[in-house]
Amino acid sequence: MSKKCTCGFQGTPPHEDIYDCIEYEEVQSGKKKGQWMIDWAKKSKKSEAKRKPSGFNAWVDKSEKKG
Questions:
Q1: What is the pLDDT of residue 46?
Q2: d(C-alpha 12, C-alpha 51), whole Å
Q3: Is the pTM of this model over 0.70?
């Protein structure tokens, strides 16, 4: 991603993308740097666990249970 920073950081090294801004904002609000990535990974694992098999995978699962 190459969107320019809008967080107002005036230091070194310059922020090159939105992720630098997110980490800067986390530090400013007292959170651990990189916490957004950890939270994102946890949420994606939860949603992945909720998914039901569909299409061919569902058909294979059903046929294996019958046999």
A1: 85
A2: 43
A3: no
